[in-house]
Amino acid sequence: MRTEQELEDAVRKYGMLVFRLAVAMVSDGMLAEDIRQNVFLKYYLSNNSFQSDKALEAWLARVTVNEGRSLLRSSWHKKHVLSDQVQEVETMPDPAGAIVLRDEILEALQHIPARYRAAIHLVYGENYSLNMLSEVLQIQPSSAAALISRARKALRKQLEVNHEG
Question: Do 70 and 96 reside in the same domain of the chain?
Answer without folding.
Answer: no
